[in-house]
Every structure is written in C-alpha cells, then in structure tokens.
Design goal:
hAT-like_transposase_RNase-H; HATC_C_dom; single chain; extended; 326 residues; mainly alpha; 0% strand; DNA binding; protein dimerization activity
Length: 326
Amino acid sequence: MLEITQAYEKPFERYDLEEFDFRYEIEKAGLSIPSSSDWERVRNVCPFLKLFHDVTLRIFGTLYVTSNTCIEDIYSIRTLMDDAISDSSLCDIALAMKLKFDKYFGDIEKMNLLLYFALILDPRNKVKYLVILLEDRYGETGVKAKKIYIMDSMYELYNDYIRIHSPSSTSSTAESTNSSSILGKRQNSDFLAPNPPFRNKLREKMKTNIIESIGELEKYLQESVEDDSEMFSILDWWKVNSPKFPILSLMARDVFAIPVSTVASESVFSTSGRVLDPFGSSLTPKIVESLICTQNWIRGSISDTINYEKDWEENQQIDKELSKMK
C-alpha cells in the first residue's frame, strides 16, 4: 500500500493547490495533508517493511517446504532491526518490534530447535551455514557453546529414530553370532583357536570404530554441501538419497513436514462455511473434508501453470481487435 501511495506524492500536492475543499475536508476529519517529511518517512519505511512482507509470503506457502528457511529469515529480520535502531526515522518502530521479537527469538534456548534441525538437514546448508549464522549473531566466542547445544539435541533426536526404526540389535547380534560360528567352524574339531585377551579388546574396539564411522548423521555432515539453484528440490534430494541415509531420511521427512505457519491451512478450511450451507448440511464430515481439500489442490495446481500477466495482455489484445471489427 505504501509503495503504491508514493506514486501519488505530486498529485496530492497539486490537488491541494487546486482544490480548497480537499484540505478543508481532510483537516475537518482531524487529519493533515502529507508533508515532504512524511513522504520521506514513507520512503524509509518501505524497504524496512518489505522484508517482513517477503518472509510472510514464504512461510505461508503450502506447496513447498518452509521449515528449512525459517531460521535464515529470523536472523535476517534480527539484522534488519538492529540496523533500523540506528536510524532516527525508524528507531521507535524497530525498538518496539525488537522487544516482542526477543520474547520469542531472543536466544536459542527459547526457540524450537526443530527449526535448526531443518536448516542442518538442508544439504545446501548443513553445519557450515549454521556456524556462519551463529557467528553473525553471537560472535566467534559464543559460537562453540551454541553449536554444541544444537548438535547434542539433534543427536538425541537422531538416536531416538535409530532406536525406533532400526532392527533389534539383540536379534541381529544373535543371528550374526550363529552364522559366524557356522561359517568359521574348522574341519578339525581338535583344533583349539587361541583367544588372547588383547585380541578381543582389539576386535571390540574395531567394531566400535566401525559403528561410529558409518553413522548416517556423521556421514551426511562430512559430505560437501550441494549447490544452490532455483531448480533444487530438497524433497527430491532426500528421496533420491534415502537408500544412502535410510534412518536420517525418515527424520528429515518428519521435520520438513512441519509447516512454519498454520494460517494457510486455516484459511483453506475457513471455506467450509460456504460448502456446508443449509442446503448441504447433510454432507458427512468425510465428504466435506474431501471437497475442501480437492478445491485447494485444484487451485494450487492451476496457480502454478497459469501466467496471469500474460493472459491479461492477450485478453486485452483480443478485446482491442474485436472492438476494431465492430
């Protein structure tokens, strides 16, 4: 609204000069004609508010993942407010906004760590980008403690997924023991294999090292980050790499399925009042849900394929040609 209003700065001034009733009606309502300082303030506020507008559009999306970019948006907003505090024209607005912002996002301990997990599970970011964000916010001295807190929590969640989705270690151990005893049995029954204690310790240590080295989360974090491009699809990437990271891909699926905002889904189901009217009150809840979801899916697929600006220009051209024929 403010961006559109800026185009009418000169018309406001000229209308004020040519129409006396214009100023009279404005002042009668207890308002005033925008001055040059007011227009300058509008020009300063617009870039400040534009970031909030862009972030709002991103997190309200329903046809793509939103949780993996939320932390980056939060840190961008924080940086923007810190810069605005030093601006005399925006200081009051920024201070009031920062007070409420810090209430929810002032420190990592106050935030939902799943947002950090989603950032790390984005193969274009991983821990490297997390460290960059933390350094920008807390400085080099405070990064280590914050990083340890986030990664320890992420490993706890990852270990829970291993415990839930991995096969029973007891049964696998028993099967491997039986099979190894059969495969390793010598033909000579009188032969007694040596069993020195140091060899047993060595083998146990080797087993431990193998298990630690092939951990999915460690393997994922050690690999290089993916190139960022407009064609990159994070869901397709995890789908392709799910055989490589079977447990971690399940964790990523659940984390990315969490929407940052519920406004979009609430607005979709607010149409139920128009679907379930007095004439359609006999519809079952399952049919109503199917109608609403189908309507949203159809609208979503149409919006992706239609170029409204191009269609508008074509329709305007058709109207002009039809008018000439008349």
